[in-house]
Structure prediction request, 178 residues.
Amino acid sequence: MISSWAATQGYSYGGLAVNTLIVYDSIFGNTQQIAEAIAERVEQKGFVREVKAYQLSPAELEGIGLMVMGCPTHRLNIPKASRVVLEGTPVRALRGVGTAAFDTRYRMPAWKSGSAARTLSRKLHRLGGKQVVPPESFFIVARKGPLGEGEVERAKRWAESILGRLKRREPEIVHKAA
Prediction:
């Protein structure tokens, strides 16, 4: 449920207030660039906090209406740091919270490279989150990066699609602004 604080501050999207938490794990800075691009777009429409995965505490989850989480795909899965954070998150901590998951990985079929976004999405669902959009992958050129051409812009468009879906969601994800 979105905090009444966010609603009273006038953070809204189409008359709907959104309190968003963006959590990311970034080894070489590529996933952080995507998280920042998403935050830039979402904060134009509501309140956003960005937190590195290892800094996430249960208190950070209080009052959020949307949680976007991303990490690099590492050995066909999510990195250990992200896994530890999710395993340490209380059961049903995301009950009623809209969720979206993304990863950074090589541009190749997911069956070959793996997709941390798919795994993140499943884990967020197990914590009670409600998937707002399908998991998304953003592509890197080499192991340490950089991101592929146009990936930051694509992340901003993906953030817009999240906001568009929130406009059509039920009130437990978003509240009408006061």
